[in-house]
Amino acid sequence: MATTEGVGCSIASCGADPEPGSPVALCTRHLLAAYDWVARDVGLTDLLPSPCLACGSPLGVQWPAGWVCAVCEWRVGDIPNGEAVPPRVDVVYYIRFQDRVKIGTSSNPRGRLGQLKHDELLAFERGNRRVEQKRHAQFASLRFAQTEWFRWEGAVKDHVAQLQAGVVDPWDQYRLWVSQAATLGG
Asked: Could you say which DSSP state residue 142 is in?
């Protein structure tokens, strides 16, 4: 990397000292102008002024025309349409009650989980009945006969741990999936 010390800004009319360590001989003012010029085409990822109203993400991309959420691409400032029918997002849910886990599916998990006695929502997995049936077959050795309930041990526990990795709150993850589906038009 060439050093820029002892050389004036390469913009002929400027003459200001270049920014120390800069890969090109530009002063701070001209480096910022170049940065803004590039950012208009690629956007600038940064913290949003406030969390996204659609998915809650704190990260956004700033464009000359305004901010969009970096996760779901909702335009900051737009109010989610409360009258719009939310898109259908099927999930496989994992709930724990005492020493057992229910693996079920729903497109309305808040309503469904409100009907079921449980101690804890463990995780969501994006998927429909096919995914649910696959999980039931996968963990068949731990299944309570003729039910959707499984012993909370071994492979079931390991699978849930994988689903939980990096997820603070399953409901945040679900809201994100709904927001992404809405952004993509369902």
From this structure: G
Residue 39 included in any domain = no
What torsion, rounded to 10 degrees, do the Cα atoms 171, 106, 80, 173 define? 30
State the residue range of the domain holding 52: 44-82
Does 166 have pLDDT greater than 60? yes
Q: State residue 84's pLDDT score.
A: 60
In the Cβ-directed half-sphere of 6, how many Cα atoms lie within 13 Å?
2
Specify whether 117 is located in the same domain as 144.
yes
Residue 112: both structure tokens together:
């469904």
Residues 25, 11: Cα–Cα separation, whole Å:
9
Entry pTM: 0.60
Residue 89 vs residues 9, 173, 186: alpha-carbon distances, Å: 55, 12, 9
Task: For 83-137, write each residue's pLDDT tens digit.
Answer: 666 788 999 999 999 999 999 999 999 889 999 999 999 999 999 999 999 999 9
- Provide the number of structural domains found in the chain: 3
Same structural domain, 15 and 60: no
Q: Are residues 127 and 173 in the same domain?
A: yes
